[in-house]
Protein 1
Amino acid sequence: MMTLYSVRISPFGRKIKVLLKELGMEDQVEVVAANTLEDPDFLLAANPLGKIPVLKTPDHGDITNSAHIARYLLEKAGSGAAVSGDWDALKLEALCDGALESALLLVYRKRFELGGGDVYFQRQADKVNRALDRLETMAPDFRTDGVPSLGEIQIIVFVEYLAFRGPVGDWRQGRPNLSAFVDAVSQRPSFQATQPAD
Ligand SMILES: N[C@@H](CCC(=O)N[C@@H](CS)C(=O)NCC(=O)O)C(=O)O
C-alpha cells in the first residue's frame, strides 16, 4: 500500500486522486491528510518544500510534484493504461498546472492579506485568463466520451478550482466550447467523488 499526502481542496492532489480512480488503482493508495499551513514534520521530511501532493512509493521513495507522481502511476499501469499520458496530454497538463500555480498565488494573496504587488498579481491573473482562452480554442478537439487523458483530467481540475475559489471571476464567460467540454466530462464518477471542499 502506498501513501499519498494531500487534502481535499488541493487541485494538484485532486489530479492524482482522479487519475487513481480512472486507472483502477485507488485501492493501492492510502490518502493521508497534510495541512501545509502547519508544516507537519512528516510532510517536511518527505518534501522540504512543504508542498502536496507527495506519493510514498516502495521503489522510488517519496515522489513530489503531481506531474511526476502521475508519470509514476502511468508507468505502473503499463502500456494498456486507460488514461493517456502522450505528448498532447502532457502539454495540456503543463498548461493547466501552470495556470493553477498562478491561481494559487492569487488565492494565497487574499488569504495572507498581502498588500502591494498589483502588477505582479495582475500578471498572474493574465496567465490564468490566457490559459483559459487557449483551452477555449482547443476545446472542439477534446473528447467528451471515454476515459479522459491526463491533460483533460487537469482541465476539469483547473476550472473547478477556479469555480470554487473564484480568483479571476467567471471562467465560463465567453468560453462556450470549454464550458460544454467541462459540463460533459465532469459528470464522471472520478470527478464527482473528488469535488473541491474546505
Ligand atoms: N507543482 C506542484 C505544486 C504543488 C502545490 O503548489 N501544492 C499546493 C497545494 S495545491 C501546496 O502545497 N501549497 C502549500 C505551499 O505552497 O506552501 C505539483 O504539481 O505538485
Note: Residues 10-12, 36, 50-53, 65-67, 97, 104 surround glutathione (CB under 6 Å).
Protein 2
Amino acid sequence: MKTGIVLQARNGSTRFPYKMVADINGRKSIEWLLKRLEKVKVNERIVATSWKEEDRDILKIAEYHNWKTLAGDPEDVLSRYAKAVEDFSLDVVVRITGDCPLIDPELVQKALSKALEEDVDYLVLTGIIDGFDVEVIKGEWILRAHQKAKLPSEREHVSPYIRKSKKAKKLFYKIHEEDLSHIHLSLDYPEDLVIIERIIKILGKEDFTYEEVVKLIKEKPEILKREKEIPVNEGYLKSLRQDKDFIRSLRAKPLKLENSLRHFEKTKTLIPNCSQTFSKSYLQFSVGAVPLFVKEGKGCYLTDLDENTYIDYTMGLGACILGYAFEPVIERVEKELRRGTVFTLPSYLETELAELLRETIPCCEMARFGKNGSDVTSAGVRLARAYTGRKYIACCGYHGWQDWYIGTTTRDRGIPEEVKSLTLSFEYNNIQSLERLFEEYKNQIACVIMEPVGVEEPKEDFLQKVRELTQKHGALLIFDEVVSGFRFSLGGAQEYFGVVPDLACFGKAMGNGMPISAIVGRSEIMELFEEVFFSFTFGGETASIVSAIATIQYLRDKKVIPYLWEQGKRLKQSIQKLIEDKEMEDIAFVKGYDVRFLLDFVGENSLKLKTLFQQECAKRGILFTGSHNMALPHDDKIVEKTLEVYDEVFDIVKFAVEYDMVDELIEGQILQPVFRKM
Ligand SMILES: Cc1ncc(COP(=O)(O)O)c(C=O)c1O
C-alpha cells in the first residue's frame, strides 16, 4: 500500500495571484505547508503544479524542501492528480490544496489512518474550519474520475465526480460535533493573509495544532475581524456558471428544418393529426427541433424534407425488417405491379403465401390475408365469437384501431358503452387477473387475444397457463403476433416460447413495408370464414402478397433473424453499460428483448427527458423514438455510430437533470403520449 500527499499549488489564482509565494511571517506561504506536512507519515510527498512559467518558483521551492514535483495541465487539476497516481504508483492519495498554510499534520494523519482503517474509496473531513481541508482518495478512483469526469467543476476540484458517484465507498468524517465550516482561514484573498499571520503570531510557535487554533478563535473571536468582507460562495458560483456554460455547449447546433416546418403548417390545414398513424404524428416528434416528415428511406436511413439524413431504429413501426426499399423485395414487387395487382378473381399467389405460412408458423393450417394488423385481430375476434357463440373478449396488449379494442384505452371517443362493455382487459404475467375474468364471465368469454410477448418476459409459465385456462373454459386463444411475428423467430413468439395458440395474427414485418397481414390457425376454426364476413377489395392485392413471400423467404434463407438477435444484443448491452457507467439508472433504462427493445426515461419528467434526448440525437443523425426494432441494415458500423451518439447525448440529459436545466435545453415542443396513463 503506497500512500502519498499530493499538494496542488499554483500562482495563477485570479483572486490572489502569486499567493503561493506570498510572505507569511518570514516564510513563503507554500513553505508553511511543505514544512508542516513533513510530519505526516506517507511514502511520497509530491507538489503538483502547472507547467506554466509562473509556477516555476513553486517547483524550485518544493525541490529545495525535498518534495517530489510534477508539472501538468494548468486547466485540468484532476489530470495532474491522475499523473501523480500513475508516475508514483500511489494506492492512496492525501489531497491537500495550496490555500491551506495552517494545515495540521496531526489532522491529516488522522484522516489518512481513518481512511485506511475503514478501507474507504474517499474520505473528507467535514465540519472543520475552512483552511484545514483534507481528502483521502484511493488512487484507482482518481484514475477512474480522470477517465470519466467531464464537467469543469469535476476537473478543477478533483473530487466532485467521486463524491457524486454512488459506487464509491465514502466517509464524511466529522471530528467534532460543532460545524465550524463557516470559519474561513484558507488563503484565497490578500485580506486572508492578515488573519493567518495574526493567528500564527499569537500562537507563537510553528507546530501549533488544529485544536489550538479552534481554542484561540473561541477565546478571541475578534481575531477573525476583517477590514473588508470577502464575497460569500464566489468560488462555488463561478464553478456553477462554468458547468452550466459547459453543459449548454454540449448541445449540437440546431437542425435546418425549414421545409419540414413549412410542410407541417400546410398539412395542418389538410390532414387532421398531420399523419395517418398516431405514433408517426407530431405528438411523438418534438416540433421545431426534429423532422416531422420523411422524403425517402434506404436501408436504415431516412431523409427528411430538408435533406437531413438519420439512422432509424423504429423502421416503419417495426414493418421494415429488411430495411427501407430493400432491393430483393422491390424486384419482386415491381414485377408484380407490371402484371396487375387486383383482379376479378383471386390470384394464385395467395395460395403460395398461405402454403409458405403453413410451413413456417406452428399453429397455421389455413390462412386469410388483410392489409393491417387491425384487420386480422378484428377478424380473429369475430371468428372466435362465431365459433363459440359467446360475446365477451379478454385482451392484453395493443390490438389496433377498431372499436372492440380501442374502447379499452383512453382514446375511446366515439365508441358506445355497449361495445366497450364487451371487451375485458387482463394484466400480463398476472394469471389471476385472467382467472378472475373467467370466473366472473363463466362460459361467456369467446377468446383471449393477447400479445404473447411485449417488452416484458413471460414469467412462471404464464403463456402455458393462459393456454391451459382457455382450454379449460372453452375459449379460443389468439396470439396477436403483429409485432412479435417474423421477429422473435420465423414462426413467431409461439415458436420461440413453444406455446401454440388456436389462431394467430401477423402483420408489420411480414411484408417489409408493404400492406399485408394474415390471420392463421386451426382448419376447424378457420373454415368458419366460409360464413363469417371478412372480405374487402384489396385483400388479395398481389404486390403485397409477393412482398410477403419475398420477405419471408429472404428472412428464412439468409438466416436474418439470428443476426438481428446478435446485433440487438450488442446494442442493448452496450446502451445498458453506458447507463451504468454514467450512473444514470435512476434516469434512463432499456427494457425488452434484444430484437426489439425500448430505451426510455424515468419519472414524471420522462417525456421532457425523452424530448431532449430525441432533439440531440436528431442533430447527430439519429431519429430517436425510444423503439429499437432491429433490422438487417443495423450492421456493426451503424451500431457503433449509435453508441457514440448515445454516449454524448446521455451526458447532456444527465447533466441537464443534475443542474435542473432540462427545460432550458429543450428547443422544440415536448412530446405527448398517444394514450394517457389510466
Ligand atoms: C400487437 C399489435 N397488434 C395489432 C396492431 C394493429 O396493427 P395495424 O396498426 O397494422 O392495424 C398493432 C399495431 O401497432 C400491434 O402492435
Note: The radius of gyration is 34 Å.
